[in-house]
Amino acid sequence: MNNILIIDDEEKLRSLLGRIIKNEGFEVFEAGTLKEGEKLLSLKQIDVLLCDVKLPDGNGVDFVLNTKRLYPLIETILLTAYGNVADGVQAMKNGAFDYITKGDDNDKIIPLIYKAFEKVSLQKRVEQLQVLVSKKYNFDSILGNSDAIIESINLAKRVAPTEATVLLLGETGTGKEVFAQAIHNNSNRREKPFLALNCSAFGKELLESEIFGHKAGAFTGAIKDKKGLIEEASTGTLFLDEIGEMHIELQSKLLRVLETSEFIKVGDTKPTKVSVRIITATNRDLQQEVKDSKFREDLYYRLNVFTITLPPLRDRKKDIPVLADHFLKIYSSKINQKVSRMSDEFLANLSKHDWKGNIRELKNVMERAVILCDDEELTIQNLPLDVQLAATIEHSNKQMSAFELASVEKLHIQRVLNHCKGNKTEAAKLLNIGLTTLYRKIEEYKIG
């Protein structure tokens, strides 16, 4: 129910206005003084407030300011018998949604109330999304109990409340952006913007414009001024992923931001001041990049104030069942598949796979497995061939026995038959063997 509070000392006018608003389906509460109104605001979930300007115990224009401070989502429409520009301007400065004169409100008030409710609804939705984002990108959302990941989480928790620059190291797919977002959400800048940019996705000129912005006419196609991400993220956090890919000429501009909190836009002549926290990440060895003269040494030391290394998935294999179950729940719900569990063999093969793509690869494998599953349980047949063979080729430097080779051949034939949906003639062609040979192999390996 959408709730409206009317504060007006003229009882007849207040009651008439209340009846009109109730006819629109709103729940209406009434008060004759600001004190009564304050009590109702504390007891009821009010969305829109209609308040007279001149009341026995105070001024509605001043009341707006206090209401907005205590209840920021409430929108207030001020009503006055004698409107004046000064009051109207001050009311809007204090946070009023609108300011109208009594007698002129017959045609205005209901449409205005609906507009106020639209704004309230939007603000509530934004607040809900902020809560969801905060939960999604918090340290509690980083799954795993292995010593390696716990150590990384603890380091991130220690540095989050500070203003220190953070360098996240780790292979692709280890969750560097998730850590960066969690650090931001647990910092004093949590209410401010968090912006992320992958430095490897742009060439030098475009990356410079994206990060630092440009002035109109700075280059062909620059028809108007553009704010860069550093300026957009001011008072918040800027996450620069794959910092090792940044051109060395741009590294000097980033260094200036870290040292002086200012930069110069492309095509500009005067500096722009910013207050931004920088978090960077890379899968490169920056120390080696410095030795090879591909990365500025002074920038490296500015970024390396606080370093957190994120472990690859192969070094935290005890976390694989937890992560796999998490992705199983996500994708079974997302694509409406009633898949609720994983077989022991399925989990065993997940744990023995090398996971060069880390968590991102596991996530993709789980999504694919859920899509292919026709039952409530994921089995080894739902895995890609390389993961199916994980147990057999776990030790790649070990000479395979005849039994192991037979296991590989059996799984490969089963895989091809699945691909061909049981069509043995087509499977034999893909395997490049005779149909008779295929039948013999099926019988030998007891392939169903």
Annotate the secondary structure layout.
Elements: E1 3-7, H1 11-22, E2 27-31, H2 34-43, E3 48-52, E4 54-55, E5 58-59, H3 60-70, E6 75-80, H4 85-93, E7 98-101, H5 109-136, H6 147-159, E8 166-169, H7 176-185, E9 194-198, H8 204-212, E10 213-214, E11 226-227, H9 229-232, E12 237-241, H10 248-260, E13 262-263, E14 272-273, E15 277-282, H11 286-291, H12 297-303, E16 306-309, H13 320-334, E17 341-342, H14 344-352, H15 358-372, E18 377-378, H16 385-388, H17 402-419, H18 424-431, H19 435-445
Parallel strand pairs: 1-2, 1-3, 3-6, 6-7, 8-15, 8-16, 9-12, 12-15, 17-18
Antiparallel strand pairs: 4-5, 10-11, 13-14
Helix pairs in contact: 3-4, 13-15, 17-18, 18-19
Descriptive terms for the model:
448 residues; alpha/beta; Rossmann fold; five-stranded parallel beta sheet; 19 helices
Describe, in plain words, how this protein is organized in 3D.
With 448 residues, the protein is an alpha/beta fold. It folds into three domains: 3-131, Response regulator (Rossmann fold), CATH 3.40.50.2300; 139-311, Rossmann fold (3-Layer(aba) Sandwich); 315-445, Helicase, Ruva Protein, domain 3 (Orthogonal Bundle). 47% of the residues lie in helices and 15% in strands. The strands form six sheets. The chain has a five-stranded parallel sheet with strand order 2-1-3-6-7, with helices on both faces. It has a five-stranded parallel sheet with strand order 9-12-15-8-16. It has a two-stranded antiparallel ribbon with strand order 4-5. Strand 13 (262-263) and strand 14 form a beta hairpin. The longest helix is centred in the first third of the chain and has 28 residues, at 109-136. The protein is extended and about 100 Å long.
